[in-house]
Amino acid sequence: MLKLQEVKKTYRIGPTEVDILKGVNLHVRKGELISIMGQSGCGKSTLMNIIGLLDRPTSGSYKLNGSEIVYADDDALSEIRNRSIGFIFQQYFLLSRLTAVENVELPMVYRRGDHGGIREQSMELLRRVGMDGQASHRPSELSGGQQQRIAIARALIGKPSLILADEPTGALDTTVGREIMELFKALNADEGITLVIITHDPVIANQCKRVSLMRDGVIAE
Amino acid sequence: MQEGLSYEGRGDCRVIIRANIKEALKSLMSAKQRTLLALIGIVIGIGSVIAMVSVGHIVQVESLRQFKEMGTDLISIEKDDGSDSSSPGIGGARATKSSIKLADVLGMTAGCSAITVVAPSVNVSGQASYGGKNIPNSRLMGVTESFRDINKLRISQGRFISDLDAQSQFCVIGSNVATAIRKQGCGNIIGEKLKVGEKVYTIVGVTENVPESGMRNFSPNDALCVHISTALRSSKGSGISNIIARVSAGTTNNIAREQVMAYFKSKNSTLSLKVSSPEEIIAQMEKQMRMITLLMGAVGSISLIVGGVGVMNVMLVSVSERRREIGIRRALGAKRGDISGQFLIESVILSMMGGTLGILLGVGASYLVSLFAHWNFLFSFKAILLGVGVSNVVGIFSGYYPARQASMLDPIVALKSD
Which of A1, A2, A95 has the most B C-beta neighbours within 10 Å, making it the best mutation to test the interface with B? Predict the structure, then answer.
């Protein structure tokens, strides 16, 4: 469902060109729970941005759900992000002015077409992540773990084919981090959701079915 | 999956717009102080534009009403006091030497075929007093019987000055003078005595209150009218100051003016006269109005520009403060258009708030102006539409650039900023 072939990314910093990704090959099948692990600076964030269509590769091919991604049309990229990818970030990235349930609903605001029963779906997802009691709370009133659970509900609302988590437990303590990982595993096992987790933490990475090690701009194994 | 993407729902933007309006209100409310400061320029700008349009409209209707009331078949004749003369000394000397003679004025109806009625008047200096107390603003005038009809005065008590009152010490007072006398506890005004300087006048009538008019250079409500011969005798030298003449039906004011000029030239060649007709006065008023309109228009436009810059500044700050939010929204699938729409709506709402306050300010200001100028206040719907329209345009113009900046932000850069 996700296939990267010889993906390269070069940044120009002043007069020098820096190769961040030096030909990444990655194949993720539907229903996989995979972690991409590596030290900071190895290019895993850049890879995540490319998989999430937030950044474009300098060269190489990216197929998502069998279609080659075309980078010329920015609106089409937004549409794919909205429909096919759910994001989970290290710093949760909830909007502070919105309540928990409004944050969960946000991706659906940007989806044209079917809009029936969004509030019910959002509440259902908040129940799923154990946050239905805090639906009308604002992010500032919640702990980090609670905020991350809401972010997970937000990633699920659009029924994406892929969930992309960038250091999802990086800002949480070990116990809460373990709880979040349990939630990921349950989502993967019960609902067959494809999850790509990017982390530097071997403890997190080893809980996944598959671990890809990234080193110096390439996937080593 | 990609070919299965639906674009058919593009028209369904109500959800986004509703969400954007809600967001914009929240964002503006969360920075109240900044919002209010940004609004001041817009409020003043819209306010002065509204006041300008509204006052202009009121003045137009008002001057039309005044002339309709007086009639447009009147011309006003005044002695040219020499202020136009290149040599003021000579002009001044001439002005005192020659004056309009009463006999010549009364002969005008016979001498000029275009004139049917004449009403000369004399202003006499000195304030009237009753029971030892001065009556403020009062003004002694010498008039003839025809003065009443030409100025459309109505008698509320007693009678008006008649041509048989020549040399008598009878006077007719305006409504304001009557009110001043009544305040001193006088029940029946008729027969009471007023003092002007050393002379004592007996009141024989009171005129009804009349609204102010552009054709008159005095207020009948503050007048003490005596017969013109009485006034000329007591005023020592100040001759006839003003003549209002009615032009006969079927002739134009210009023909009447020429006849009047020729008539007085034949009587007294040293006399120079100024004849003005309602058209001229209207034209003069319109010229003044254009000046005022231009001035207020300039003030309005400048403050609108300042206001627009203020709105733009607030929006730019808002965009740079919310870069991360923009990044999050972009990651969740917001298109560039969704982001720019959000900020544009915020900017329009901001200007519309200013516009609404400005409309209130402008309508309030024009109400006060018409209150102090004794005009009938008119609520101008056109001005409201203009205010709403202008504030919308300001909102769109000053929101466009910040909104575009927001929409062009790179999602990754936006997400990384704090």
Answer: A95
Sequence-ordered list of residues with C-beta below 8 angstroms from that of A19, at least 6 positions apart, any chain: A8, A9, A10, A217
* ipTM summary value: 0.95
CA distances from A143 to A73, A137, B290 (A): 38, 11, 66
**What b/e readout covers A103-115, taking b as 16+ CB neighbours within 10 angstroms?**
bbbbbbbbbbeee
Domains of chain A: residue spans and CATH: 2-219 (3.40.50.300)
Q: Residue A66: its chain B contacts at CB < 8 A?
A: 1
Q: Is B277 exposed, middle or buried (0-12, 13-18, 19+ CB in 10 A)?
A: buried
Whether the pLDDT of residue B126 is over 60: the answer is: yes
Q: Which residues of A touch B15 (CB under 8 A)?
A: 109, 115
State whether residue B112 is helix, strand or coil. coil
Which DSSP letter does residue B377 get? P
Of A102-111, A141-150, B218-227, least confident by mean pLDDT is B218-227
pLDDT in tens, A190-214: 888 999 999 998 988 999 999 999 9
Q: In the prediction, which pLDDT does B84 show?
A: 46
Across B270-297, average pLDDT: 80
Shortest distance between the Cα of B316 and any Cα of chain A, in A, equals: 19
Phi–psi pair at B235, nearest 5 degrees? -85, -15
pLDDT tens readout for residues A30-86: 999 999 998 888 888 899 999 999 999 999 999 999 899 999 999 999 999 999 999
Q: Which residue of A has its CA nearest to B415?
A: A93
Give the gap in angstroms from C-alpha A151 to the nearest C-alpha of chain B. 11
CB distance from B86 to chain A under 8 Å? no
d(CA B48, CA B362): 6
The CA distance from A5 to B142, in Å, is: 108
Taking the CA of residue A129 and the nearest CA in chain B, the distance in Å comes to 19
CA distance B374 to B162: 31
Does residue A94 contact residue A144 with C-beta atoms inside 8 Å?
no
Residues 6+ apart with CB under 8 A from B417: B323, B324, B327
